[in-house]
Amino acid sequence: MKRGIGLLGAVSIGIGGMVGGGIFAVLGEAVSLAHGATAVAFLVAGLVAIFTSYSYAKLSIVYQSEGGTVTFIDKAFGDNVLSGSINLMLWLSYLVTISLYATAFAYYGETFFAHKSIWLHHGLITFSILLPAIINLISASVVGKSETIIVVIKVSLLIFVIVAGASYVDSSRLSPANWGSPFSIISAGMIIFVAYEGFELIANAAEDIKNPLKNLPRAFYISVITVITLYILISIITVGNVPENELLKAKDYALAIAAKPSLGQTGFIVVALAALLSTFSAINATLYGNARLGYIIAKYGNLPRVLMDESKSEDVPFMGVIYTTILSLLLANSINLTQIAIIGSAGFLLIFFIVNISAYKLKSKINANKYILFISSIFTFLALVTLLYHTYTSNPKAVIIFLSFIIISVLFELVYGRYFRKQIFKREYKQ
């Protein structure tokens, strides 16, 4: 098997997966809860990510497969209701991230229009999902070729905003006197945890990474630590440069506002354009990735075989793209940014908790430290409980939607997985 991805390429996959549209979408949400401690909130979320990346690194070395998360859970728990439900939950969680990016695209896009309306908002959401879907259906290769360039542009721009704004920081805005309560800071970190979702994509490329024994762990740790540092610095620049009341008025496009003190209106426009590019490319890549994930899960029998349909000219999971597009459009146009961020973060915290438990169960086979795995499991569990408790008191509708996702996943697996899949496999076996 030819391995063509080196350490730098693997790190780029992780950074690109995390620095998608998330930071543009959830920065304002973090400020609204953590206030002057927004950087601390990103650090708290980053600690959960770095501990979970240990589990992914160990699992990826032993179980190298494009299935990634799906493979790890199946190896630990086998073919049962839990693994089937979590696999479907993962697919649904990526639908939520597409919706998050699309909503962020709409908010940044609206800054270029003098008159805002509900029609403009939903029109931009719909456009940001439909165009990437068309691109995916026409040529999947465009997705991969463009992503590396866009990742460089995104990271370079964030570094530029940090450097340009460093001398404008008012440290008094970052003092503990302006921090939220400890619980609100942790809650903020969990709500914006979705901004760290993406490092797990390295696992999906494990089969193609050179010298995996060394490069896989390095890729996970370097990418997560780099993004933690980047997010903390961006948080400091944002909170330190702009009065909080201005940030909260424009929390849906807070990063563009953060560029104004140092770069003026030109900086606002440049960051807004970069946000459009970043969220659009994130939708493009996630839509493709989720269509491929649907194909893999369908191949395992946890989703209908219609998702395995491919076009003849390209390696494009045609029906996977169609279903992903339709469901993303429904989600993005039905729930608001705060609810999407909460549901997305809760979904991935639940999945990462199961992955950490999977790693603990397989600790002997993957040669992992049981104490680190135990801490990782506890961290993700407490993070999920904290997020759900806070959300229940402030936004119960988001909890209901999240629980509905879990119920749908379990019921689907019980009905389809336990009956229809067995019938399909029986027919195939007889043939």
What's this, in brief?
With 431 residues, the chain is mostly helical.
Which CATH architecture would you pick?
Up-down Bundle
CATH topology: Amino acid/polyamine transporter I
Number of helices: 18
Low-confidence stretches: 425-431
| Number of E-state strands | 0
Defining key terms:
single chain; 431 residues; mainly alpha; Amino acid/polyamine transporter I; disordered C terminus
Structure explained in plain terms:
By secondary structure, the protein is mostly helical. It has a single domain (7-430), classed as Up-down Bundle (Amino acid/polyamine transporter I), CATH 1.20.1740.10. The protein has helices at 7-18, 22-34, 38-62, 69-77, 81-110, 118-138, 141-165, 182-191, 201-204, 212-241, 244-249, 254-258, 260-300, 318-332, 337-361, 363-366, 370-394, 396-430. The longest helix is centred in the middle third of the chain and has 41 residues, at 260-300. The two termini are 31 Å apart.
Topology:
Blueprint: H1 7-18, H2 22-34, H3 38-62, H4 69-77, H5 81-110, H6 118-138, H7 141-165, H8 182-191, H9 201-204, H10 212-241, H11 244-249, H12 254-258, H13 260-300, H14 318-332, H15 337-361, H16 363-366, H17 370-394, H18 396-430
Helix pairs in contact: 1-10, 2-3, 2-8, 3-8, 3-10, 3-15, 3-17, 4-5, 4-15, 5-6, 5-13, 5-14, 5-15, 5-18, 6-13, 6-14, 7-10, 7-13, 8-17, 13-14, 15-17, 15-18, 17-18
